[in-house]
Amino acid sequence: MGKLDGRVVLVTGAARGQGEQEARLFAAEGAKVVLADVLDELGEPLAKEVGGLYVHLDVSREADWTAAVATAKEHFGRIDGLVNNAGILRFNELVSTPLEEFQLITQVNQVGTFLGIRAVAPEIEAAGGGTIVNTASYTAVTGMAYVGAYAASKHAILGLTRVAALELAGKGIRVNAVCPGAVDTPMSNPEGTDPEAVGDLYRTLVPLGRVGRPEEVARLALFLTGDDSSYITGQPFVIDGGWLAGVSVL
Ligand code: NAD
Question: pLDDT averaged over the chain?
Fold first, then answer.
């Protein structure tokens, strides 16, 4: 028995990184997965491999959500889970951040999450209830220099998560957020820096002494999507190797 047998879950940003691992794990746990992304050349073969459905979905575009939901329903008959995982990151000092960059990050991370909740919640309700997991970040609960626009969007995702949890509880929909620290994906290492050098950095920064793995975030998303979290809604879950536990002098 899989933990998601009979469920239909849409995962955004599923072509690589954390979304890819969520799609793989959810499929292995019995879910029918709708893999959504803008990287069609990665997403399509992955969907085939895990027995899911690939849809081209730019989360920042309202029309794309309408089309993706229609395609998913046509294929699987319903949707009862959503993982809003797609996101983008840019590094910049706040006072040097161009307005277009701030707005782009807001549009993908924050507006994309809002559009996802709005498009899919009615489908989950119609399916008799289910779950939404939003991907925030440790920068949703603390600050970090040079990621002002990103941190603002991730703080907003926590606000959306809490409000959605309140409004959707009566419809049988639980809404929670994952808040990863540093996780080894193309986002955190866009230059493809030598894994040894990355390892050295996190050995000193993170109490558990290493960068996180996307598979570990996927397991948290599985917990929040499955029945093991049946009495949990409206909460942020930090997964960061202890980075936010406090200041360490060790
Ligand atoms: P990633 O860059 O490897 O994957 C992100 C995926 O989102 C990609 O497949 C990308 O094509 C897709 N995407 C980007 N813009 C999109 C759009 N407009 N519409 C649809 N898909 C889009 O990064 P990741 O680390 O796997 O990131 C997943 C989520 O985790 C993001 O929300 C990110 O902000 C969050 N996060 C990552 C880390 C980290 O250290 N990697 C830490 C905290 C939070």
Answer: 96
